[in-house]
């Protein structure tokens, strides 16, 4: 969509709620609860952290809703940042998406797949890494070959994920309390790091807020769709964590490598663990495939805008596929699998790798709302953030705190991610020559 184009308002309120819920609830919720439990220190804090994640997400979604309706553009945050801070910051955002945010998300999902696939058929000490690398390579090849995934396939994969969640919630909440204590509990009480993991699971609403430009009766339905969808997501996340706490106990939950599988194993034995692991592994493949697909398209757009990356702006003439963008993306992703393997904590390392960069540009997006309000006061805004400037300032403060936490409390992965983004600065100056 060009700058002056107007989006078509085709989405009903129920359409918008369904889309947002579908985008946000990903495979991370099957992995992050164990990490949150390890940092929370108590059952009560676990519940409060997941509730706080829903509130922070709602605040951010309101800010993105104003940006998306006032500046409807397919570039999304790239466009807001360029309009607010210029091409330099926009370039670094695109560079960060290519090298850290999008590729890190692909690998993060791939490690979730590897952890649960290893519950079904372990491949040795590096089983999760083998599965992660294999899934990325195979799905990239499928996309390059142009074998289109049918809509029914993606829907089935999403249904498997939802089925798994509902099953775990029901069985966990109805299970007898688990009194077994993990042999090596890892409870630390680091709430800042816990919130990094919580908000990873809430991630995706920032993409979903873009549909606010296409909702019917915008002034009435934007707020309803955001509040309703994030309310549903928060309720589901609270219930799944209560199920884990009830069925496993805090220490066992914190020590788990595949928390849903461990819960099902405690209730149904190995049959239950294999069943839920299969559901999660299959649904995660769908998320990996979608992220690979969209990531390559983002890189293609970068190649069109900046001459230095023009090689990514080429497509195969036969089937219009951005093959160079796919190949660069898979190369970066496989390198990140190696990083996760070396640190012996693949999923957590990818959270560390992506979090500081993600929250930096999230913070800048929030600031762009304030900048554009001041610089362009006469732009028509179909939806305005309520209680301005309190809500945007609260969002920026939250992002700043999460940026601080992701830098201070994370491991070597965070340092690598920051260095990779910093490496984009000389490329920016080279591109300007």
UniProtKB/TrEMBL annotation:
Membrane-crossing segments per the record: 12-32, 44-67, 88-114, 126-147, 159-176, 188-205, 226-247, 267-288, 325-347, 353-372, 384-404, 410-430
Membrane topology designation: Multi-pass membrane protein
Keyword annotations from UniProtKB, A to Z: Membrane, Transmembrane, Transmembrane helix
Localization (cell): Membrane
GO cellular component terms given for this protein: membrane
Predominant subcellular localization, coarse grouping: membrane
InterPro entries the UniProt entry points to: AA/rel_permease1, AminoAcid_Transporter
Molecular function terms, GO-annotated: L-amino acid transmembrane transporter activity
Domain of life: Bacteria
Record-given protein name: Amino acid permease
Organism of derivation: Anabaenopsis elenkinii CCIBt3563
């Amino acid at each position: 969509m060009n700058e002056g184009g107007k989006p078509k308002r085709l989405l009903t309120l129920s359409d918008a709620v369904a889309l947002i819920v579908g985008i946000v609830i990903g495979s991370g919720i099957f992995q992050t609860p164990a990490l949150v439990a390890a940092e929370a220190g108590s059952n009560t804090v676990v519940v409060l952290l997941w509730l706080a994640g829903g509130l922070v997400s709602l605040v951010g979604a309101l800010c993105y809703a104003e940006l998306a309706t006032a500046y409807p553009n397919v570039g999304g945050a790239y466009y807001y940042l360029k309009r607010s801070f210029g091409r330099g910051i926009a370039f670094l955002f695109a560079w960060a998406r290519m090298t850290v945010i999008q590729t890190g998300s692909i690998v993060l999902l791939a490690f979730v797949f590897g952890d649960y696939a290893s519950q079904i058929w372990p491949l040795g000490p590096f089983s999760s890494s083998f599965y992660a690398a294999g899934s990325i390579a195979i799905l990239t090849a499928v996309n390059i070959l142009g074998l289109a995934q049918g809509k029914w396939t993606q829907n089935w994969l999403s249904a498997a994920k939802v089925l798994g969640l509902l099953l775990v919630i029901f069985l966990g909440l109805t299970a007898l309390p688990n009194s077994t204590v993990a042999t090596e509990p890892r409870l630390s009480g680091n709430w800042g790091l816990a919130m990094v993991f919580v908000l990873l699971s809430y991630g995706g609403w920032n993409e979903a807020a873009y549909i606010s430009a296409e909702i019917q009766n915008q002034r009435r339905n934007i707020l309803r769709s955001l509040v309703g969808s994030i309310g549903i997501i928060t309720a589901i996340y609270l219930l799944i964590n209560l199920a884990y706490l009830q069925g496993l106990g805090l220490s066992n939950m914190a020590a788990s490598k595949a928390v849903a599988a461990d819960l099902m194993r405690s209730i149904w034995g190995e049959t239950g663990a294999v069943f839920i692991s299969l559901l999660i592994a299959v649904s995660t493949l769908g998320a990996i495939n979608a992220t690979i697909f969209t990531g390559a398209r983002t890189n293609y757009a970068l190649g069109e805008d900046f001459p230095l990356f023009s090689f990514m702006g080429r497509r195969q003439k036969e089937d219009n596929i951005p093959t160079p963008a796919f190949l660069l993306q898979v190369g970066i992703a496989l390198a990140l699998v190696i990083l996760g393997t070396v640190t012996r904590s693949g999923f957590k390392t990818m959270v560390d790798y992506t979090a500081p960069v993600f929250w930096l540009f999230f913070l800048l997006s929030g600031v762009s709302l304030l900048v554009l309000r001041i610089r362009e006061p006469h732009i028509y805004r179909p939806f305005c953030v309520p209680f301005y400037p309190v809500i945007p300032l609260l969002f920026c403060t939250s992002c700043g705190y999460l940026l601080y936490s992701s830098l201070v409390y994370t491991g070597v992965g965070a340092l690598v991610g920051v260095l990779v983004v910093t490496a984009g600065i000389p490329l920016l100056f080279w591109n300007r020559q």
